[in-house]
């Protein structure tokens, strides 16, 4: 009888324990990261003189920490969830505290920017990252630790563009009548070579070609194209004209004779030809294109330099850099100048051939040592004293203008355009590596646990790495209040992993893991527990009645 009562009482105690577990599960059905427990029952036996007698039952709550809860997206970027195995590391102290572990990822920043587990005194731990270097020591994740993105001075400005292969401007058609009374045409094209602001003159290269079926030659009887260097003043009068083939100098406005291939015919082009006497008006400024190049100085200030491209002739362009907004450019001699120029050349196949530094005031290479600064790799540079007092000095902090690989077309190139529109430079892309100061605008956590800060200047940087901690036996962890766990001999030592590597799960930012409690399962278990409890109580009642009957029989 005693054994019967003992077994029944143990059953009542076991079912009470099971009901307590069910109650706790239901209470935490909405708790983030909560892992439902179950009850395991074990029989108890007593042994006397080689025989066993039923001793009842015992109940033990069993953790299932490894169960995966449903992951739901939220609107809070610091909400974190682990998909797979592992825990977040948290601490109860901002400095030097013990490390605990949790699956609850409902983190929020306090007034100092520290991420803490909402509603608790536990802080998220991670490895700080400064200038790309990751610390080897855990610390509390503070999203305000790098709330300012320091400015970076531009060191390289890269350009990818195509320059038109036929960039000479057409002067017009020169008509004349030969000795047979037939009118024929000659075409003239030009490019601007240089401008002398002091003298008020402009120099052009002019090429005269015959129409189809006609051959022309110079005074020596050779050549099929006549080449001249013509200098005009501001009123359009020709100051001088040089034959580019013979080097002869002509004065006034009389141009050299043009000799037809037919010796019986002759024609001359003189100052009475009105198109020549108004040469400057006809030519204008020649083909050129200007744009503003924006770079950043060491203080994060946007600085502007005007870049002008001018066609010099076949496969050759003039690149002129001019100061703007009060900046002063510095040439390779250390002199302050308002502008300097480079000759940019292309190979016959249209690929980039390189740059040549020009002397101040020159617009084409003449053998004189150039004063426009170049890098050790032969690239053009912007060397300047900016208006805010900062500087870009040659050889130290100058801005390199990257026009691509010599012999390649990865930067600038010179190919004919298929477009029927006016000749123009086609810019494919341009970029520079500087930026202004920025303030923290948002924080996000990626699948690898990188805490990425985004700034108002468009830059972003990893400021922390949140590890995923795994154990040999996660179900052996000791559960504490607030959804945290403590390592034990049963769980084994903590192993810190980069999220998504080894056995560690990945991290989902802006998401939370739901409780693994199923209310349907818990209510079903509650019914079973209630029935078992009632049965045990009935055993006690029956035992009591039997004992009463026995006592009555004895009496």
From TrEMBL:
NCBIfam families: FlgEFG_subfam. A flexible structure which links the flagellar filament to the drive apparatus in the basal body. Residues 81-126 form the Flagellar hook protein FlgE/F/G-like D1 domain. This is Flagellar hook protein FlgE. Keywords: Bacterial flagellum. It comes from the Bacteria. GO terms for biological process: bacterial-type flagellum-dependent swarming motility. PROSITE patterns: FLAGELLA_BB_ROD (PS00588). The keyword Cell cycle does not apply. One of its GO terms (cellular component) is cytosol. Residues 286-435 form the Flagellar hook protein FlgE D2 domain. Residues 509-552 form the Flagellar basal-body/hook protein C-terminal domain. It holds the Pfam family Flg_bbr_C. Residues 6-35 form the Flagellar basal body rod protein N-terminal domain. The keyword Endoplasmic reticulum does not apply. It is found in: Bacterial flagellum basal body. InterPro entries: Falgellar_hook_FlgE_sf, Flag_bb_rod_N, Flagellar_basal_body_rod_CS, Flagellar_FlgE/F/G, Flg_bb/hook_C_dom, FlgE/F/G-like, FlgE_D2, LlgE_F_G-like_D1. Belongs to the flagella basal body rod proteins family.
